[in-house]
Write a structure and sequence with these properties.
The chain has about 70 residues and is mostly helical. Helix content is about 55%, strand content about 10%. A two-stranded antiparallel sheet has the order 1-2. The protein is globular, with a radius of gyration of 11 Å. The chain starts with a strand and ends with a helix. The model has no long low-confidence stretch (mean pLDDT about 80).
Length: about 70
């Protein structure tokens, strides 16, 4: 997860256990939840995209913690 000017604006995938289609689907589902909740807590994985979802959720947690200075 890459932040720019206070906003999440893109993802960088270095490796994935799911193929690109699954990663894209997971990204859209996770991004929507995180933006809606303004948090990565209590975010559900996207059905059929478990590995990618878990990776993106953790990436959002890391990015949000960095933004908070944690």
């Amino acid at each position: 997860v890459v932040r720019g000017l206070g906003d999440v604006y893109k993802r960088q995938t270095y490796f994935s256990y799911d193929d690109e289609e699954y990663a894209d689907t997971a990204w859209e589902g996770i991004l929507g939840q995180v933006m809606g909740k303004q948090s990565a807590d209590s975010v559900d994985t996207v059905s059929g995209c478990t590995y990618s979802s878990q990776g993106f959720i953790q990436a959002f947690r890391n990015a949000l913690n960095q933004a908070k200075g944690a």
